[in-house]
Amino acid sequence: MALYAMPTPREHIEKIRNEKFLIGSEKAHRILEEFHGTVELLSDELYSKDVHFFMELVQNAEDNEYEEDVDPSLEFVITSRDITGTGAPATLLMFNNEIGFSAKNIESICSFAKSTKKGNRKRGYIGEKGIGFKSVFLVTSRPYIFSNGYQIRFNEEPCPGCGLGYAVPEWVEENPSLSDIQKVYGSSSTLPATILILPLKREKVDAVKQELSRIHPEVLLFLSKIKQLSVREDNEDPSRNTVSAIAISTETECKTRKNINAESYTLELSANGDQFDEECRYHMWRQKFPVKQENKAKRRMDIEEWVITLAFPNGERVQRGTTSPGVYAFLPTEMVTNLPFIIQADFLLSSSRETIRLDDKWNQGILNCVPSAFVEALVTLVTMTDARAPVSSLLWMFSFLPVNSSPYPELNAVRESIRAKLIEKEIIPSESGTDQNFFYKPCEVGRLMPHFWNVLVKAKEEKVSLKNLSHHGIKVLNSSFDKEEYDPVLNFLGVGQVNSEWYSKYIRSSNLVLGVSEDVYLELLLFLAENWSSKFRNSSIGDIPLIKYVDLDGNVALCSINASAKSHRTVCLSRQQSWLIDWNREFRCVANRFFMPMSTYDAVRSSSKKDVVLEWLQDQVKVVIMTVNEYADVLIKHLTHDRRLSVAYAHFLYHSFSQKYLSSGEVNYLCGLMPLVDNYGAVQTCRYGVLVPANQSKWAELIVSNPWSQERYVELGEDYLRPGNFAGQSTPGKQFMDFLKTHLEASDIPDISPPNAGFPTVSGPLTKENAFLLLDWIKRLKYKGIRIPEKFLTCIKEGCWLKITMNGYSGYRPPSHSFFPHSSWGDVLQNGSVLVDIPLVDKSFYGESINNYLEELKTVGVMFEFAEACEFIGKRLMCLAASSNVTRDNVFSILNFIRFLRGKCLPPDSFIQSVKDGCWLKTSQGYRSPGRSVLNDQAWKTASEISDIPFIDQNYYGQEILSFKVELQLLGVLAGFDQNYQLVIDNLKSPSYLNYLSADAVHLILACIRRSGSSEKLVRALGNTKCLKTDAGFKSPGECFLCDPDWGCLLQVFSCFPMIDETFYGSIIVSSKWELRQLGVVVDFEKAVEEFVRHFKLQASSSSISKDHVLLFLSCYRQLSGMRWKFPDEFKRCISEVKWLRTRQGDSHIGDYRSPRDCILFGPDWESISPITLLPFIDDSDRFYGDAIHEYRKELKSMGTAVTFADGVKFVADCLRIPSNPSNISPENVFSLLKCIRMLEEKNISLPESFTRQVSQKWLKTHVGDGYSSPNQCLLFDQQWESYLKQTDGPFIDEEFYGSEIKSYQRELSAIGVTVDIGRGCALLACRLDYHTDFTAIVRIYNYLAKFKWEPDGEAAARIWIPDGWRRGKWVSPEECVLHDKDGLFSSRLNVLDKHYYAELLCFFSSAFRVKSNPLIDDYCKLWKDWEISGHKLSNAECCAFWCCAVKQCSSKKTEELVESLVKLPVNSGSDEILLLDKRDVFIADDLQLKDIFEDSSPHSLFVWYPKPSLPALPRTKLLGLYSKIGVRKISESVKKEELFFREGVELKQVNRQDFPIGKVLVKLILGYLADPSIQLEAEKRHDAVKCLLNLTILETVEPIAVRYTLSLSSGKIAAERGSQMIRWEKESGELFVQKIDRSGGCKNLIKYATQFAEIISKGVLWDREDHANALAELIKLAFLVDFDEEEVDFLMKHKNMQIFMEDEEFLSAAFPSE
């Protein structure tokens, strides 16, 4: 047998050309030519950018095979040498040190979409498309390959022998030769096995160079093979080099496996180039995730695991250019994610390789796993660090958090998922105050404000403990982390500020106030001040003692902000702080004012932010900044009755003034307020002055007793004369008294203002000396400008102490009733007056000296003037008038007295003024004053007709009264009319006397209105009287009209307007328009129009406007429209809105009244629309307006009447009346209506509801039903419908009946409800599906409905046709259907739609009708119920199908249905069949030991079925969980365990506790676990929980401890089995029974013992918190296995973030003193 010889590379190439490409065969030529075009198109589509060939070459190199001792590398060299002889301006060479091309590789590269890497993803291949190499044709026309003896090239031009390009290999004899290549590569190095040579197209050179210059250094980051990559340019002239050279290498450092699915390692990436030399370490996290069934992709069906790698750059990323890719599919994409880490996975890429396909389910499944990988990586980074490492060394890890959003929504979802997972992880370091680091969830940690950190740092420097920072309800973020630079990270994690109450609790529990220096204390106050308004105003910080003050004993005390702010204790500051502190103690803090310590004051004063602190202290704490003056002012109010403090206060003022702390003015003011001790020793707080009495004063005889006692004058006591010593200050007596005299202003009697009270001396006659003494006192007061008090002066004025003489008789009278006589009138009044006697001062008694006190006499009331004497006489007479004693003779006496004074040339004015206002003249209207009386004459005749004038009663006084006309006029009596219109008005008669007035009376009234300034009374009186004569008789003014010739025609339309009788009043009445208007007469056009409008409305309301009225009004309207008058808006509204025009409806005689704007003036344009409307035409029949109405077309139009068709089209919408018989509607009527609709739409007039109701009737002719349909049930057929339907498929408008013109009204038809849009006809077509039985038509309609994504809106439309042939079938509801039945179980129960309809319509049935894709759990439950009843033995496939559905579809509600539905559950029968047993007798084998015990003894299986092996769609854990919800009991919970007594003779040996692992380390571990905040156990309860371990008696036996297990079944039987255990704890007796450890049994026996020990101890300690027992048991088991070594247990506690506190350490020390 001959050996088969392998062909040489050249022979292999020839074979490919002949056999594969049929070179020379005409038959294949045409097919291959077409294939060439396809490949060319595919290559163009795959890579939209020229430079993508580079990534394909790197990808190919990564997929190549390499020798074990070789570091895989890839080199790119671009040169200007034309080594291929093709004339290329530049050539790119790629050198790869792989093992070289095999024959299979060559065959693959000569094929299309036939990659040798397809289906080999598991082996690490990253290429897949099979066309990657072809991408080089984008930059070259002839690529060359030199590898393993192969020297070939390809050409993009079709091969002449076969007509195909791209894939046909050609052997290369020369150009290039290996020596040419060696020159480019470098003669000192051996050529690698594979070389790719690309002579570049001229137009691609720059693009390739640019791509090579910006190769990203991270290109190797996720490649498992390629460790080195370089790019350089080789030219004979180096100055021509333009490519930026780069050499990239990677090295994997330490590699740590976390668990079976994840590993972490560090990778160092370095890049060297012409202009840079950079390196970066990347922390790499690589984790595996199972591929979910729903994310499976066709191109990845063989892949069971996703491998996701995350790269975290530790430092600046190595990069070239401005951006760095964030997503890799082994090689970088062009996706800039804005995430601070890099994602690598086996993503499916877009055809251009620029991005991953974000909408692909495979990629979505990967992205869904990224958050879990990220969180695992970060948690590992943070928590695996040394527990005592500085927190600052951990913070770089948090820089990888995706705090910024990504431009890709899908990656933002990843970002949000990362956030959601991280906030549940304990990764945030807290401030513990110890070297131990503790981590908590973000929500459990809070931040402090930077300013407060400054306070804490300074306090810590002063040895203040900060250990309790995290003991106030929330953990405090570590100070290294709590910085502004980490704000984005902390905000992303939701770490917020601690609340204001935390500050309150911490400050209260700390020593930050009294335990720190004043500088730190001031810093604390500054912190509170700057944040008070925004954070602390409403917090409990206000209740913390924070504010320092000096108390009564001179010690520093504290008060709260609220206490200070509410004035419970006022804290103060002052420039004279030390001075006021001393005096405040002297005053025993009586004013509730307390001063801050001097040291605090000095700290505030020296602070750079003292203004902020002081402003806060003043505004919020209500600290008062006090001067000495303000302190003194406040102090006064608290010295009320304390004699000593009152005296001390005076000394305080003296010394403060001496120290210049008080000014002279301030001292004067305070002295005026301070309480004084009087000569009786009483404290007087209220005073008017201070009195120093002069006992020998000459004033004593006049004053007798002190009249100032009621005015609170205080006489100083002897306390002020003694020396004093207060607040360490001594006061000499004399200087102190001088101080008081100066500043208290103590006065003698003559210098004091008289009291505001009378004194008894002046009540009777005074001696001449005392009278002059009193006048001297008054003179002195006036000289000093002192005001004489009213009561004091009145007492002097009214006292009878002044001697007078009167008609020769002397006596004493008050000064106010006395006159000082003057020689010119004194005697005249004494001798000539017959009316009153006048008292004169007795000059003979007082002598000439009295003349020196004239001003003082005037002051006390003595009268000096003639006018005063006349006034005196007049007042005496008026006193008589007041008592009705002025007789007729007295009146003539007064008149004679006036005449007498005039005769003596003395002015009577004063006398007249004193009597003129008295009511002493008798008139026709009773007694009146002269000024209100009239002397009657002829001029008052007309006035008497309308007024009651008060004429002087001449019958009473006689004719004599007329002789005193001059005197009466001087008194104010009116002696003639003289246009006294106001008097007429004032005395107007009652309205009942003002009817039917004469013409003169009316003219007088008009004159009164014209001349008087206040005619309202006259107008009111005449308002309701019939005083004006009209053409309708006498009427009230408000009823009358003054006719105007210009507009009077308006009043003549109706005969109801009374007009003033000009004949009666004369033409002059027209000139009184203004006066008539005041009375209420209508004289103006506007008012006349208003009244016309009122009457017009009234007439219209009763339909009383006749034909004559209308025509007369229209005539007048035409006349007035041509004049200057402008109609008011109300008039216009009235005539256009009021219903006064008679109309008829259509052609009928039925009509009603309407407003002009609601009417139409009929014309020929309305003929076509009339049959289908009832329009309001003005009734122009002979019965009403006739043709005459058409003469006023213009006027009617101005009033709003529609006189053209365009104006009246708006009425059509409201007046449409569709006939009950639609066959009466012609196409012309329809087109007329559609034209109206068009015009309405052009005018933007919306169609009313009444129109909608009318058009909603059936009146449009269609192809279905009875022939007519309402518009909303019609469709308009046009070309766009023809692609989907026929006219007979639905209710389309009958085009044959209406003609093609109907299509031109598409918009108008749409407005009335006709469906014209193809996308809106779904509902109409769907609701008429029931009419069809033709399967072809039904499918057509379904396709249309699917195209436009229709969904049913009611049960009627939700029907599906199940065909039985083309014309037969039935309509069923969607609930009776299912799309698929993959298991073939439901064909008898449900209609399976994929048997009748193709896939596209199945999607439609699913989305529109909600047809279930597969049978639901309810269907399976019904099926299961049938199986239960029938006793059907299930196959494994049937059981899998049911439970796969149950697990997949089961929600909480469905679980309840399963519980109710399923009575029996599956168990294995031992054969291939599965039995169904009562679920009460079926158990979950959660305890394998118990399972073994009971399974061997039971006649049939007790344990529920599950598939073996487990199916991906039916995980065992989910199935068992579902069984549990249904009610299947766990064997561990169902079995009762009974601990048996020891048999007789068993030896029990007591063990020393120190020889058994129940000691300090175990207790410490348990305490650390119980201290976790989630368990919520205070220290005392923790200690109580472990006390049960401290006094245990441990008894050891060599034999197992027997137990019995029993299981109750539904039949009532009990299955019982025996077993054993190693440990038993009887808590009541405090005894722990243990089996002696057999260490010869190996690790298995030790683990078994450790497990039972841990479970017994944890359940015993946590008997009331069993949900935490398992976690504690795991910790105890680990500790047991390391023999409770303290160091190892401490590490375990730190790793689990467990700690014990000071109180726990004290408990351990007490419990284990020897340890």
Summarize the structure.
By secondary structure, the chain is an alpha+beta fold. The protein contains 63 helices and 56 strands.
Describe, in plain words, how this protein is organized in 3D.
This protein is α+β, with helices and mostly antiparallel strands and 1715 residues long. Among the domains are: 1-213, Heat Shock Protein 90; 247-422, no CATH class; 437-644, no CATH class; 1322-1327 and 1335-1415, no CATH class; 1553-1596 and 1632-1711. Helices cover 37% and strands 14% of the residues. The protein has 63 helices and 56 strands. The strands form 19 sheets. The chain has a 14-stranded mixed β-sheet, sandwiched between helices. Strands 51-52-56-55 form a 4-stranded mixed β-sheet, covered by helices on one side. A 3-stranded parallel β-sheet has the order 22-21-23. A hairpin with a 2-residue loop joins strand 33 and strand 34 (926-928). Helix 9 (450-461) runs antiparallel to helix 12 (518-536). The longest helix has 23 residues, at 361-383. It is extended and about 180 Å long. It starts with 8 loop residues before the first helix and ends with a helix. The model is unreliable at 41-48 and 693-697 (pLDDT under 50).
Can you give keywords for this protein?
single chain; 1715 residues; alpha+beta; Heat Shock Protein 90; 14-stranded mixed β-sheet; 63 helices; extended; Sacsin/Nov domain-containing protein; SACS/Nov_dom; HATPase_C_sf; Auxin_embryo_med
Number of strands: 56
Q: What fraction of residues sit in β-strands?
A: 5-15%
Predict the CATH topology of the domain at 1-213: Heat Shock Protein 90
The number of helices is 63
- Unreliable sequence segments: 41-48, 693-697
Helix content: 25-40%
Architecture (CATH level 2) name of the domain at 1-213: 2-Layer Sandwich
Q: Kindly name the structural category.
A: alpha+beta
CATH class of the domain at 1-213: Alpha Beta
The overall average pLDDT, rounded, is 83
Walk across the major sheet and give the strand order: 5-4-3-6-2-1-7-8-9-10-11-14-12-13
The largest β sheet comes out as: 14 strands, mixed
Protein name: Sacsin/Nov domain-containing protein
Domain Sacsin/Nov: 47-149
Organism: Citrus unshiu (Satsuma mandarin)
InterPro entries: Auxin_embryo_med (IPR052957), HATPase_C_sf (IPR036890), SACS/Nov_dom (IPR058210)
